[in-house]
Task: inverse folding
């Protein structure tokens, strides 16, 4: 399994018991959706290794207490601490309407209701306080804030994001 075919679920935060159990911090708004998994992929040196789950349970809202099949001791659990956990993209719940995953709009055209199509979404920068669409218009990169108020429609069949942007936002780049 390759990372590009997966999504980041969380990180193994700490040990939970002397029997090799660990706590996975779940980076999701719906942790309960992930409490009955059969397996996960753990990132070891940029290689995704499958780990099969013996049992799991939610722990304090954002954590999943997990007992992996082949992790029997505290020292084996220690080796997992800090490693990222991934699942295949096909396991993401389908979103409808104007809800979307950042990866699914890469390559979509972006259109302003006033200006029309003004570029192609190259990536999403979510490392700042406000996520941004990174849009390519010829040689020019345009940064568009992802704000619900600006978003008009996600057209999945037409591969287009339609927005109603403030006047001047796009023009300042062109």
Result:
């Amino acid at each position: 399994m390759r990372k590009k075919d997966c999504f980041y679920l969380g990180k193994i935060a700490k040990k939970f018991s002397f029997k090799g159990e660990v706590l996975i911090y779940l980076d999701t708004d719906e942790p309960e959706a992930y409490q009955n998994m059969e397996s996960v992929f753990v990132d070891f040196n940029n290689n995704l290794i499958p780990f099969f789950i013996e049992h799991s349970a939610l722990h304090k809202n954002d954590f999943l207490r997990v007992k992996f099949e082949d992790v029997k001791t505290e020292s084996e659990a220690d080796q997992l601490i800090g490693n990222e956990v991934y699942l295949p993209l096909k396991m993401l719940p389908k979103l409808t309407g104007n809800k979307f995953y950042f990866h699914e709009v890469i390559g979509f055209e972006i259109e302003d209701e006033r200006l029309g199509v003004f570029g192609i979404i190259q990536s999403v920068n979510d490392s700042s306080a406000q996520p941004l669409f990174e849009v390519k218009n010829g040689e020019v990169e345009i940064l568009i804030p992802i704000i619900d108020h600006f978003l008009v429609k996600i057209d999945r069949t037409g591969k287009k994001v339609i927005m109603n942007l403030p006047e001047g936002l796009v023009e300042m780049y062109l």
Helices lie at 74-78. The chain has two domains: 3-91, 102-163.
